[in-house]
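Give me the fold.
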Amino acid sequence: MTQKSILLIIMMALWLGCGGSKGDAVEETNGITEDSMMLANGYTALDLHKIQTGHITVWMNVNGKPCVFLVDTGGGATLIDKNRRRKYGLETTQTANYATGIGSVESLVATKATFQVNGIDIDVDYLYLMDIAYINKEFRKNHASQVDGVLGTDFLERHAAVIDYGREKMYLRAHP
């Protein structure tokens, strides 16, 4: 990434933090939009969806099938509900790692998968399976949409995610 590109990203972030909002046409004096700038720098844009609980979700395909992920900027691992393993055609390998969730501790099984985002394939080597029924139970209580998995910081960092909460967009680099 060039210094000019980095400067433009910083300028856009500052502009958004100082009054940009969802639906605004984000324009620089030279006519470059935030979307075009991000795309020119190897990013792809995804729409974020705020559900009734205030959580943010994003839609992607996993091995060719639609999947709803809870975006968890504080979650250490990307995972899919182990009860949906067959739906996504995931083969598993037992690991020595353990995961904790609200009221649960369980051993993790790992798998590989291909995420599809805007027609771009992203190979994911570290995808875990875990029972996330407790998350969906709470979402059901609040009449919120169910999720198939959790998109954690491992994935977000690897793909240099930029989240624009005001415009409800997330930008990812498919190939870091």
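Strands lie at 43-50, 56-62, 65-71, 79-81, 93-101, 104-117, 120-130, 149-151, 162-164, 169-173.
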